[in-house]
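ok so for the tutorial part 2 we go from a plain amino acid sequence to predicted structure tokens. step 1 is just haveing the sequence, like this:
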Amino acid sequence: MMYRVVSSILLLGLLPVLGCGGGGGGGGGSTSATAPATSPYDVGPRAFEGPINGMLATKGEELFKVKTCSTCHGFGVRITGPDLKGVTHRRTSTWIKHQILSPDVMTKEDPIAKQLLGTYLVQMPKLPVTDEEADALIEFLKRKDVELGAQ
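step 2 — the prediction. this is what the tokens look like for a chain of 151 residues:
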């Protein structure tokens, strides 16, 4: 009986790790007292500073659902991964794109992604996303930030 209880507790503890992680998800801040990390991919204008391509943003909104991003990420709410509200004000398009396309590499090499993984304790999965789809997702994030009045 005790074995079943311990096994059940361990299994429940592993579910977030096995699910769609949000180790970097492109945003969110560390809630610890450590200094914010910096990244060579996060230098320059923030993603929101560029004009929004409406057609790509619409495609990105659909991809956000189809690629199951909404399983782990919300806007104005933390689910499993970081809250994406304001991510285009915190990060550059280059950083967000790298995080979308290669989250596994980012959490090994990028200081910001490493810090996010330490905070959220769940690795964002590497999903089958093309370069163009990543661009569309970024345009959607930019439009969403405008809609939400994010800063």
